[in-house]
Amino acid sequence: MYHTWMRFFTPGPVHQKLGLVCLGVGLQYGPLPVVGPRTLDHHVAVVVSSGGGWFQGGDGRRVPVSAPALLWLTPGVPHHYGPDPDVGWDEGFVVFAGPVTATYTELGYIEPDRPVVPLSDAGPARATIGRIARAARRGNPLLEVETGAAVHELLVALRRSRADTSPDGHPVLQALARDAFQPLSVAEHAARHGMTPAELRSAVRRGAGCSPKDYLLGIRLGRAKELLAATELPVAAVARRVGYDDPAYFSRLFTRRVGMPPVRFRAQQGRAVPGGWSNQVPDPDDPPMIEGAHGE
Hints:
This protein is an alpha+beta fold. The protein has helices spanning 13-16, 100-106, 123-135, 143-161, 171-178, 186-192, 197-208, 212-230, 235-241, 247-258, 262-269; strands spanning 3-8, 21-30, 35-38, 43-56, 62-66, 69-73, 79-83, 89-97, 116-118. Helix content is 39%, strand content 21%. Strands 1, 2, 3, 4, 5, 6, 7, 8 and 9 form a nine-stranded antiparallel beta sheet that branches. Helix 3 packs antiparallel against helix 4 (143-161), helix 8 (212-230) packs across helix 11 (262-269) and helix 9 (235-241) packs across helix 10. The radius of gyration is 23 Å and the shape is globular.
């Protein structure tokens, strides 16, 4: 005996403009029927949290599936799969579509070439699927936006839960982040890790979905924005703090990437307050407070 619950949605043209829409969600467990062979015109993420079975993709090879695991069903790719007929499996699935899927694929969050992905923990993904299921109640006026936003969360949860990736990122990425403000070239960063530039590019692309240059630039500009918004340091000093000895080059780079020069960003976002600013990630339940601002 197997148990199935599923619901499907039809987002309208306005919601399609969001770029990513949820088309359906399902939860089922037990010795489920075999699926396919079939080909879809949308994406489906199938999260197997217990049990096991098999999967056969477009290449015709049948591979075993052991929980926890993720099955990627991608548009235009034939697939055929099923749980073990004696044991079955526990499955949650989400159907989604939209042009943003191309970007998630480019970033490595969706992997058409790896339809079976071992997970270290299916819990976070299943929790997100549960939120989509709860949002799917009849008459929910926020249905399309709420479920679409949850698909973004699901893709992040699945990326973090991949068995071949630490939730905190690849050690090379952590080291790059630590050294991001040093005036080092990509080749010099690679040499520090005993890697060739090509090997570093491959590792960063696999871990962060971008080039080492863009990864470092994102960290540098993020810190520069913090310094511009929360301190009165001159732009030249901000440039040096984030690894640029040439303030004119920093200003051109900042303007090109941010869309406005550093001085304009500061004019819009400047929030210098007594006590300065902190690098520590705050607890949302205990936000930072200006001394004396709590009624004392």
